[in-house]
Design a protein that fits this description.
heterodimer, A: 320 residues, alpha/beta, Rossmann fold, 2 domains, seven-stranded mixed sheet, four-stranded antiparallel sheet, 10 helices, elongated, B: 416 residues, 16 helices, membrane (chain B), ABC-type transporter activity (chain B)
């Protein structure tokens, strides 16, 4: 695994996992995963369905124990000891259908040690703040799916956790609510809360994350800052010339390929200056020249392989 | 949000209390609980109606009559003598005149007894000096004496008056009676305990399945230890059971007292009634917690109600065996088998309640209760461990190996 110390190198760690392994019936769901999540970061676990994201999160949270390896969460080996400082939104949302919305939030807070009366007060307050005050006394079964998801999200945050873990938080949300959730996650990170989430949608990770762990087949081939992941691939150069041939072509790098009107190739180690000189001297007539930094998707393909990238793209998602 | 974060983690007991409080209020204030309370009423009503109808039918059809077929004078003499004797021998059947025979007239007593239009158990024929009793062997043997007495009375050979016997009930029971009664109390106590335990412990089965259906279980498992979830659920259901038993007990006692019954009429158990009831509550609680923790572990491993029913059947049968084991042991106090019944966790509450009815020593109950608490703790821990091991897992569905038991199907369904 490639691990890169990035922006969070000097920050204390919210999560640290070393070589965690989980097997089910002889099948290795998670195979020696290492993770380090700095405090206050937005950290994404990126991988296709079945890659081991949920199992990894469950081990980090103490829902299940790893067969091998060690984990530390907010400085503790036993996650339940710091459960009162953690919020968790599982992939499969669940609430008691007969509970009222504000009671459901209070109950989730009570599970994390928040006194029930305080939880009820905060529950009503949070619902008001998020435009759901009118639904505070409605039973969960009377709410729409989207509203119930919001109630659960508020229940995840009611006790003001230091670390929030979201498992596929964008799944099932429309574009508007995905945007709201992204803003909420950024707001949490700005207030010093560590946010870790799993996703199979690269765009979310690319927009939100300081650092990512790319997971495929139960292994993490890369964990570190998003920029470092992108830098694993050299920037791509796109060149358009008036002349289609000439002595300047000898200056093109070996990986250059002609796609339509463009020449495409990775930025050479020596930069573009020697090529530019050759183009000018050879009177190629430069129509356009752009240097594009690799996206996270390209980085994912390069790091996890084509098969994992295909699985990622095939993962069901209504809104990307 | 400006409010302060939570200052400390919940202890296992505090976490269990959060779960118990939620489950208890949710069940208590549900409409289904009202019907649950009414549940025992329906079999009682049906049983009462069936019993009443049965008694009425028995009253009208099964009351045997003694027929008489003699000459007119003999019938009159025998009837008068019989009425006089009925005052002294309350168990005598009613005397029905079948025929007043003319001199020399023949009469077939066998045909009269077999006649389906009448309800005759036996018929007296002949004369008071030489009565003939026709009927089934057991009845004619039983009625032979009274008929002979009536005939003697009719002939004027019986005493003119019968001295009044003064009744003295200073001795209410003998030691043998007391022992027999205590065995009855023990049997009754065991049966009630078994029925209540089986009726109520089954409730926890569906509870966790419902929770898994609501997908809440993962939120609980992430926030608090599974031991706390299990403990909370068990104690919530125990509290619900206590509410149910209190309601049924108060109602039943009121009806029982209104019917003119009194506890003083019944032989007291060896430890006395108050201690017996106290121990019954404790043993019910322990029996409930033991069986409930086992059911909870099963409920946690099953994905559907059908799986719950399938998996719980062997446990139900095993508990029935435990009950029979304890009942068998009850008749052999102090024997190795009785001690074994008090040690085996799942038969221990039944065996110990029977012991409370028959043996006044209290320290044995302290020991048994402590042992049962340890067993409950082991069951809860084992259930929680099984749950964490088998249920909370995910991963890709692998083709060709679809196992359906112990949550393995759930894994395939919740692929990450």
């Amino acid at each position: 695994m490639v691990s890169n110390a990035g922006a969070g190198a000097n920050r204390p760690l919210a999560i640290e996992a070393r070589g965690i392994v989980k097997r089910f019936d002889g099948f290795t769901a998670v195979d020696g995963v290492d993770l380090t999540v700095p405090e206050g970061a937005i950290y994404g676990i990126l991988g296709p369905n079945g890659a081991g994201k949920t199992t990894t999160l469950r081990m980090l949270l103490g829902i299940i124990d790893p067969d091998e390896g060690v984990r530390r969460i907010l400085g503790h080996d036993r996650p339940h000891e710091v459960a009162h400082t953690i919020g968790y939104l599982p992939e499969e949302r669940g609430l008691y259908p007969s509970m009222k919305a504000y009671e459901a939030i209070a109950f989730m807070g009570a599970l994390r040690g928040l006194p029930l009366a305080e939880g009820r007060r905060r529950g009503r307050e949070l619902l008001e703040q998020h435009g759901l005050g009118y639904a505070a006394d409605r039973q969960i079964r009377q709410l729409s799916k989207g509203m119930a998801q919001q109630v659960q999200l508020l229940g995840t945050l009611v006790h003001n956790p230091r670390l929030v873990v979201f498992d596929e938080p964008f799944s099932g949300l429309d574009a508007l609510n995905q945007g709201k959730l992204e803003r909420m996650m950024r707001g949490l990170a700005e207030s010093g809360v560590t946010v870790i989430f799993s996703t199979h949608v690269i765009a979310h990770a690319e927009r939100l994350c300081d650092e990512v762990a790319i997971i495929a087949g139960g292994k993490v081939p890369f964990a570190g800052p998003v920029d470092v992941a992108r830098d694993r691939i050299r920037p791509q150069v796109r060149l358009e010339t008036r002349a289609s041939d000439g002595p300047w072509r000898a200056a093109l790098p070996a990986d250059a390929r002609h796609e339509g009107a463009y020449w495409m190739f990775s930025l050479p180690e020596t930069g573009v200056e020697p090529l530019l000189r050759a183009l000018i001297e050879g009177e190629a007539g430069i129509l356009s020249l752009s240097i594009e930094r690799a996206g996270l998707h390209d980085a994912f393909v390069a790091i996890a392989g084509e098969a994992a990238a295909r699985a990622l793209e095939e993962s069901p998602e209504e809104v990307r | 949000m400006s409010a302060a974060p939570v200052s400390g983690r919940l202890s296992t007991l505090a976490a269990a209390l959060v779960i118990a409080r939620r489950d208890f209020t949710a069940i208590l204030f549900s409409r289904s609980f009202f019907f649950f309370l009414l549940g025992p009423l329906f079999p009682l009503i049906v049983g009462g109606l069936a019993g009443g109808i049965g008694a009425s039918v028995k009253e009208t059809t099964a009351r045997p009559e003694l027929g008489i077929a003699m000459s007119k004078a003999d019938v009159a003499a025998m009837s008068a003598a019989y009425r006089q004797l009925q005052g002294q021998l309350a168990y005598l059947p009613d005397l029905v005149v079948v025929a007043e025979l003319e001199p020399g007239q023949a009469f077939d007593a066998g045909a009269a007894v077999r006649d389906r239009k009448q309800n005759l158990a036996a018929v007296i024929t002949g004369t008071p000096a030489q009565p003939v009793l026709t009927g089934t062997r057991d009845l004619i043997e039983r009625w032979q004496g009274p008929v002979s007495l009536a005939a003697a009375q009719a002939l004027g050979n019986a005493p003119a008056s019968y001295p009044k016997v003064e009744l003295s009930n200073l001795v209410t029971k003998t030691t043998a009676d007391e022992n027999r009664s205590r065995v009855t109390t023990a049997q009754l106590g065991q049966t009630v305990l078994f029925l209540l335990t089986m009726l109520l412990a089954g409730m926890v089965l569906s509870n966790l399945v419902e929770e898994k259906g609501n997908k809440i279980i993962e939120i609980l498992a992430a926030a608090i230890p599974m031991d706390a979830v299990f403990l909370g659920k068990l104690f919530a259901m125990l509290a619900v059971s206590w509410v149910g038993i209190t309601v049924w007990g108060v109602t039943g006692t009121a009806v029982w007292l209104a019917a003119g019954n009194s506890l003083a009429d019944y032989p007291a158990p060896a430890v006395g009634w108050p201690m017996f009831f106290g121990l019954a509550v404790l043993y019910f609680s322990m029996g409930y917690l033991l069986l409930g923790s086992l059911f909870l572990a099963i409920g946690s491993m099953a994905s559907t109600v059908r799986e719950v029913q399938t998996l719980s059947m062997p446990v139900t049968m095993l508990q029935l065996l435990n009950f029979f084991f304890a009942s068998y042991a009850m008749a052999r106090p102090g024997s190795a088998i009785e001690i074994a019944a008090t040690v085996v966790p799942f038969s221990s509450p039944f065996a110990m309640l029977a012991r409370a009815a028959q043996d006044p020593r209290l320290w044995t109950h302290g020991l048994a209760l402590a042992w049962q608490v340890v067993c409950v703790a082991i069951c809860v821990k084992a259930g929680a461990t099984l749950f964490r091991k088998w249920v909370m897992k995910s991963g890709p569905a692998r083709g060709g190996r679809k196992r359906r038991w112990f949550g393995r199907r759930a894994k395939a369904e919740t692929a990450v």
